[in-house]
Amino acid sequence: MKTMTFEVDGDGVALISIDVPGRPMNVITPEFTADLTEAVEAVAGDETIRGAIITSAKPGSFIAGADLKDLVTAFDKGMTEAEAAEFAGELSRLFRRLETCGKPFVAAMNGLALGGGLELCLACHHRVLSNHPKAIVGLPEVSVGLLPGAGGTQRLPRLIGIPKALPLLLQGKQIKPDAALAVGVVDAVGAPESLVDMARVWLMDAPTAEQPWDRKGFQVPGGAGPLAPHALETFSAGNALVSGMTQGNYPAPPAIMSCVYEGTQVSIDKGLGIEVKYFGKLLAGSVARNMIRTLFINKGAADKLAGRPKDVPKSRVAKLGVLGAGMMGAGIAHVSAKAGMEVVLLDSTLDQAEKGKQGIAKLQEKALAKGKTTRDKVVELLERITATDDYALLEGCDLVIEAVFEDRGIKADVTAKAEAVIPESATFGSNTSTLPITGLATASKRPKQFIGIHFFSPVEKMPLVEVILGEQTDDATLARTLDYIGQIRKTPIVVHDFPGFYTSRVFGSFTQEGQRMLMDGIEPALIENAAKMAGFPVGPLAVSDEVTLSLQQSIYKQQDVDGLDDKYRGTLARPVVDKMVDELKRPGRRQGGGFYDYPENGQKRLWPGLREAFPPAAEQPDVEELKLRFLYRMAVETARCVEEGVITSPIDADIGSILGIGYPAWTGGTLSFIDTVGVREFVATCKRLAERWGPRFEPPQELQARVEREEGYYQAMKAA
Ligand code: NAI
What we know:
720 residues; alpha/beta; 2-enoyl-CoA Hydratase, Chain A, domain 1; 8-stranded mixed sheet; 6-stranded mixed sheet; globular
């Protein structure tokens, strides 16, 4: 056996200790499945063995789940649903064999047990969990478009009842040991070093090797089926909740509901069969493939800085300078201090800088009140941040990030002042959201060390950072910037220096499409609902209010001054923005109202005057057409970014679209969306949309050429 050790002691207790080689955490691979099969048969077939303890040799972690890299290929290999179910059924059958082989098994869970790892434990007859601070358990499959396919949807409800199991299955929540014990997922919690002893004590007590659900007359705790007391809430209301949340875009949650509803009314064996059938359906579909590829595999690689120039030595930022202590600057200082860096937070006055730091202190107090940090940690974090108006304190900074007003003159001024103090070797980053990096770098004495580091608001919550290469930015600067992003545990994408870069440009195509719909006479509520039905977290009008229409207007004005090419700007919907700001005096949420009203103590609602300002047409288009406009508009703009060289990696384009600008996760990102629709069909639909709604939907040449080559973005990458 390569992935586990197998020892039997004098009492006939087998200890199976999992240690998948070459992996920081144990994952379920084909070798693991083969080894565990052998181990189970060894226990079952040897009369001298009383029972077995399964644990892991990796400190703090039991099993992290299935190796998703194996699963993602199912779709690409063109597996049918039945083939995918067969493929997934192997593990399910192994776990069933384990629990019915006649010998008792105990899971000594020495830490994190997720997905298939927890499902293995659920198949064991007893579970003891370590109270290690990093120990968590959960079934997070839903977050990558799957369901727990090795018994999770069947054993968990049979163990703890349907009402308690559903939230864990549907939300993929990961819970700590005390919660796991309270909800009944594990039988006991103990110190990591005493787990195996606890398991042994249980085994020596000559326990039964029969699961409760295999006993005659077994009832699911709290009942199952349409007549269960909880059925109205769990199934009827639950289904409505699920369809409201998924809008039909995510097949996994309804499949989980079906597994639980159908599977708990029949025997466990039949239930497992139902589960594996639904699992096969999901695995053979495009949503799971796209979500696993972008949100798990590729995001994981990006987090490990896959695109980092290799020959530059690894670096660390010990001291960071942040210029501008406003909303963004304070956020950047906050996440960096949290990651252990010493931070100098500078603004034009000490008062302004202090205000920025006070904002951070408030957020820390909130986190403390929620039990997410400790008083000592808060004090230490705040001690690491120095608020100042004195440039001299920037001495010794490894990296400086400016987040002052979006004004070239001011940015040039602070760049020169900072560079007069910081070491020759330091990197200088700009958090500008619109100004070309190459232009800003002319204010720098060291343009090779000048780079765009574009955060998203709120910095504390948004996981993405868009790195922008100026014309002269060198590899060492890119590598150091990526190292810094790794330090603050965010996900980087790398793009080139074009107006709007990548994310702002594609995001603009979304808000402008929504605003344009107003001009087209479409009902405001229909616009917002169509976007949400397509899977966007917020409608284009609501998000325009957040960004503020006045900011959008000032960007347009700056673009006038710069004489920017039309293709980079939203000329189409500009009349809406001008009218809202200048005529109707509704510039956005922060200024009291925009497309929406924001009552002091109540829910925001669409401003009633909107229908008068932009009268709806008598005939309204189909909502499906509006969904297409949002999804296609952003995808075709991404394709244009690829053609122009704004972005070169489909992986970065996809990650950026989901993590930064709210493109629906079920698509796998803007370019995965095109690939999944198929380039030929995508281009044909674009042409139809262009004819009906305007040339902004016209597919770029580079994309049209792909139709002839029958080559999608990911296929193209494989060939390269
Ligand atoms: P803000 O107005 O909240 O903060 C700007 C800060 O810079 C203020 O505290 C101001 O006192 C300070 N400042 C101005 N001139 C200064 C000078 N000469 N020396 C030192 N400090 C000075 O603005 P916000 O939203 O934080 O934006 C800052 C930068 O980040 C801008 O370049 C903006 O385009 C960019 N950005 C903004 C995003 C957003 O969602 N607000 C998102 C991504 C980037």
